[in-house]
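Bench notes, afternoon.
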Amino acid sequence: MSDSPRDVEELSLEELKRLVLELFEENAKLRSETQGLREEIARLKGLKGRPQVKPSRMDKQSKARRKAKQGRKQAKRNRGAKRLAVDEDRVIAAPHPEGSRFKGYEDYVVQELVMKRLVVRYRRERWMTPEGLTIVAPLPAGLRGHFGSELRRFVLAAYHQGQTTVERLLALLCGLGVEISKRQLVRLLSEGQEAFVAEAEAVLESGLESAQWVSVDDTGARHQGRNGYTTQIGNDHFTWFGTSFSKSRLNFLELLRAGHRDYVINQEALTYMKGRNLSAGAIARLEASKNRHFTSQSAFLAHLQALGLTRLTVQPDPVRIAQEGALWGAIAHHGLLRDSVILSDDAGQFKLARHALCWIHAERLIHKIEAFSDRQHQAKERIRRRIWWLYADLKAYRQRPSRRRRGELSRRFDQIFTSRTGFATLDRLLARLHANKAELLCVLERPEVPLHTNQSENDIRCQVTRRKISGGTKSQAGKEAKDAFLGLMKTCQKLGISFWDYLGDRLQVPEACHIKDLAEIVRLRHTATA
């Protein structure tokens, strides 16, 4: 624009239009400069600038949304008819006046469940050979006892997956016309399940061989009228349960052998014993012995007695540490937990190898602290907020790990857990948690490891439910069957396999879906996610 004013009356129409456009451009430029100055002033004052609001795309998307909504409604109406395979057609005649024209059918699909007793009599041919031998036709595959495979599948699914009681299941079967006693029903649930118990052990072995991490937990159990404990081991792809009368580290190591019963003295075992402060003299005796592999606990204890370790009365107990070390050596000997992280809630028996701690349980300790003044309450809440902010950033780090971010999160951890709030109880707890820094920040080195044991808590809930509604088990076979079936059920759920189909395949129900070996599926899943 020109600096000197011009007489508007002298301008032509085209010149007036140009002048108006120039004024608009000049005005927009001044507005932009003014806004920039305002934002700079706000920044210097420490205030928030003007929010950047993106233009709405609602007008462009409304038409597409209407079409998608209509499509979803139509798909919902037709979903059942398209997905379900029709087993039977039933034609319903419609009364119509004479002269009407037939226009086909309007389909209405209904799902039905057929439950009735079916008594089958197998008439097996008998033949006498010229030599005088009797030949009898064999029974169909999968038939065991006087109850068919389909009934056995229903019993196992209703009891373990449906979490019903023996009494209610018995009443249901009798109501359907099945002649069965409570003793026979209990036998169907517990006896002859060795194949399922073996597959559950194979799933554990496969998981411990290939898993990058496992989470563990335990809960109370009842067996043979005594209090015991059920231990859970699992991750995203498998679950395994084991019930015993102890929750010691020795018991946990026995469970980690995945069904093996041997004791091994190797380099891993000796390293474990040194880490647990076993005396150098005892370690030297074990290392100097030619016997390194023992097939049972009794054989290993006899070896310790021959070496004179059972006569030592020192702390820590040499026999216990030697047993733990030999069990750890057997675990390494069988290729289990080679580089796996064990994630737990800080129970002492689970602290083995590379160990990680659950952040939810750690923060819960702070949450439970009783504050007796406003100042203490405010200090506690400030620390909790900072911990949850750090937790959120650790979750984000798992998705996109980086070396720079790793150092920053480690420094923030130190700042939080070395804080001095003036609340003595809180400060002591923070110092205790800071001592567990390597276990709480395991995710920085191993981003695949979760930050909590929620999965274990969810897995073990089925054991808690079973304990509440059915009490405990009485026989060894019943205990093993309960643990095996609940573990296999959870494993099927994690692998996206129908537990009903799994039982049908293993019990050789006619026309049942084929389900591959679960241990092999777990191994393939771990390999794919490694």
